[in-house]
Amino acid sequence: DSGVTQTPKHLITATGQRVTLRCSPRSGDLSVYWYQQSLDQGLQFLIQYYNGEERAKGNILERFSAQQFPDLHSELNLSSLELGDSALYFCASSAEGGRELFFGEGSRLTVL
Amino acid sequence: DAKTTQPPSMDCAEGRAANLPCNHSTISGNEYVYWYRQIHSQGPQYIIHGLKNNETNEMASLIITEDRKSSTLILPHATLRDTAVYYCIVRLGYNDMRFGAGTRLTVKP
Fold first, then answer.
1. Prior bond to A8 cis, omega within 30?
2. Nearest to A101 among B41, B42, B97 (CB)
């Protein structure tokens, strides 16, 4: 158990819909990272937050947005969903000055 | 961050050492080398990281060449549970961690 909690674990929705994925980092971790992994694909970095502020942005679509709240949990919002958005979405967290990323178990999104 | 090159796949016999290579010829002086692995569709798991010196922990050893242009992750006694995709990543400071395609290691009985 990494200490990073992601909800929901599984989500099935239809094209055009909007979903929110939630991540609770390890206690005290200030950095949160979001990744997307499509079937048989590598991990694509989406975005990183540090203590509520966006720190780095990767291959995140304009239809996707994220934020980190004062209690340090983070949400990834996916809108106007397309079939190609079906993927595993991972959240990871790291401590201040910590080099190791701790990953959650992922949220599996299926868009039908 | 410097890019890395890894073989797409490798096999290893159970009980033998698994040596996974990684090239990072454009690494800069203050970039760290990290190794993670992903078993099936689980969240990636941290293995080890290093800057210049060789490192060892309970999971693996990391050997970094003197010129730092390549490294090798060593799993001393591979088991079937070590079958996974292994990612070598070069990272500057506390920047975002970007994964490549990795090496799919298959441990065979």
1. yes
2. B97
Q: What whole-number distance in Å separates Cα of residue B39 and Cα of residue B84? A: 5
CA distance A12 to A68: 24
Scanning every residue of chain B, which has its alpha carbon at the shortest distance from the alpha carbon of A41?
A: B101
A67 burial level (CB within 10 Å; 0-12, 13-18, 19+): middle
Q: Is B104 left (phi over 0), alpha (psi -120 to 50) or beta?
A: beta
Q: How far apart are CA A77 and CA A32, in angstroms?
A: 15
Cα distances (Å, whole numbers) of residue A80 to A17, A42, A107? 5, 23, 18
- What is the DSSP code string of A6-32? EE-SEEEE-TT--EEEEEEPSTT--EE
| Torsional sign, CA A109, B101, A92, B20 | positive
B53-67 confidence digits (pLDDT tens)? 899 999 999 999 999
pLDDT digits (tens, 9 = 90+) for A28-85: 999 999 999 998 778 999 999 999 999 999 989 999 999 999 999 999 999 999 999 9
Q: Are B100 and A100 in contact (CB < 8 Å)?
A: no
